[in-house]
Amino acid sequence: xxxxxxxxxxxxxxxxxxxxxxxxxxxxxxxxxxxxxxxxxxxxxxxxxxxxxxxxxxxxxxxxxxxxxxxxxxxxxxxxxxxxxxxxxxxxxxxxxxxxxxxxxxxxxxxxxxxxxxxxxxxxxxxxxxxxxxxxxxxxxxxxxxxxxxxxxxxxxxxxxxxxxxxxxxxxxxxxxxxxxxxxxxxxxxxxxxxxxxxxxxxxxxxxxxxxxxxxxxxxxxxxxxxxxxxxxxxxxxxxxxxxxxxxxxxxxxxxxxxxxxxxxx
Amino acid sequence: xxxxxxxxxxxxxxxxxxxxxxxxxxxxxxxxxxxxxxxxxxxxxxxxxxxxxxxxxxxxxxxxxxxxxxxxxxxxxxxxxxxxxxxxxxxxxxxxxxxxxxxxxxxxxxxxxxxxxxxxxxxxxxxxxxxxxxxxxxxxxxxxxxxxxxxxxxxxxxxxxxxxxxxxxxxxxxxxxxxxxxxxxxxxxxxxxxxxxxxxxxxxxxxxxxxxxxxxxxxxxxxxxxxxxxxxxxxxxxxxxxxxxxxxxxxxxxxxxxxxxxxxxxxxxxxxxxxxxxxxxxxxxxxxxxxxxxxxxxxxxxxxxxxxx
Lengths: 266, 309
Description:
- The complex is a heterodimer.
- Chain A contains 12 helices and 10 strands.
- By secondary structure, chain A is α/β, with parallel strands linked by helices.
- Chain A has a 6-stranded mixed β-sheet with strand order 6-7-8-3-9-10, sandwiched between helices. A 4-stranded antiparallel β-sheet of chain A has the order 2-1-4-5, with helices on one face.
- The longest helix of chain A has 16 residues, at 177-192.
- Chain B has a two-stranded antiparallel sheet.
- In chain B, strand 1 and strand 2 form a beta hairpin.
- By secondary structure, chain B is mainly α.
- Chain B has helices spanning 3-34, 41-57, 62-85, 93-114, 153-175, 177-187, 189-194, 199-225, 230-236, 238-245, 250-271, 281-295; strands at residues 143-146, 149-152.
- Chain B contains 12 helices and 2 strands.
- The A-B interface holds A 53, 55, 57-60, 79-81, 83-85, 89-92, 96-101, 105-106, 108-110, 112-113, 117, 141, 143-144, 146-147, 154, 157-158, 160-161 and B 90, 177, 180-181, 183-184, 187-198, 303, 306-308.
């Protein structure tokens, strides 16, 4: 078993001092793996990622229990700037490109933590190699690019800091299926270069197809975890998240049996 | 119609417009990067120029005073970010606005406490002997004859200073790494944080730069209206400028300033009779801003929402 890169230990997150968003999320990203975090709207995927990248306080959220370890150091108090320096970077849900900056400027913002401008230039080329589609658009304003291009800009921007772990939030949002496949293929390529991924996704089919491990989260709790391949085979996961019922119509009560079981690790 | 006179009025308007632009840029910088309307802009001008004047009055020479005053403004800007803005980050914008109102009050009292509340004359011409500036009083008396148009030398000097400051700022914003991160922050706080741009550092830079601009603008204004509380009122003229130019645009602040400068001079001379007598210069700028608010609330160059269809 390879070394654990990111370890989330039973964290609880509260927004505005009252709204309990996560009630005990535990997960583990091993070095060099792609891990998918699946769940419906409002189940806590984004909150989990923002807890890892320490962007919660910008939305008046706070981790009230548990700990997050990265490379065996507690990072729940490290600010976003130092996290990016250490190699943890988040690609936000909905891309969040700087719409009034050009594509190239957008990507260059990701190199803020880098000291050496020469290296940054090399990395820019590397980004363009991965995302050929945005090379030809580098002079246009990011606000006018398509959704898929914006996703690539956001990912390219994150790559500029030479991360070890990318927290990728909903890369498939609002994209055509073909583009989704393209994005995930790039994820896989980057993964081969040694970047680990924690991906929050609603599109479970694609996310599991490209992932090594999977976690399913509901109401702020991890309710299921396992190897991505095994999860894909489970009838309950198939029914709830993949939309392929095994044997005709099943009663809702029968499918959700895993809810009544206590997760083994909480 | 007297064409020479008209051109003189136009040029005079443009030149006072540059001065408005300079003040307006201070507002725009802070608004762009943090979404705060900085009510303390006027008192920053006062504090900066008062600091400068008191030092020269105590016998420190021009360039040293200028340098020290700029340094104090930078420290002041960084302290403002650290002790006023940072504790309120991610709070309601109205809370931040109120904080700048408090900052203005503090700064007004502080400058009286440290220095004094007298009216000081500022005669840069005493220090700057560069030919353009003859001994005081320098404006409206000593003109250069050029095509028979009379332009006060101080106006030329002021617009050169303001103009070059604007060019430096533009370069800083477009070509440097810090400038790029400033623009990124003004576009999307959350994304800027996510890619590792430290918001606090960027804000500190913005406040420091604004402090230095306040010093330059303060000195140029003080040369005309003396260093006193009237300076704060001079800043109020920048409000219609940013309404017309757009709160989020530096080119807007420049063009807005020119429009206001020319507009009020032309209004004073050609429209005074329509509006019943002299003195419309005092309110004509606000009137123009009102028109803009009705027909184009984001101003000429205000942030257009880029929306994909």
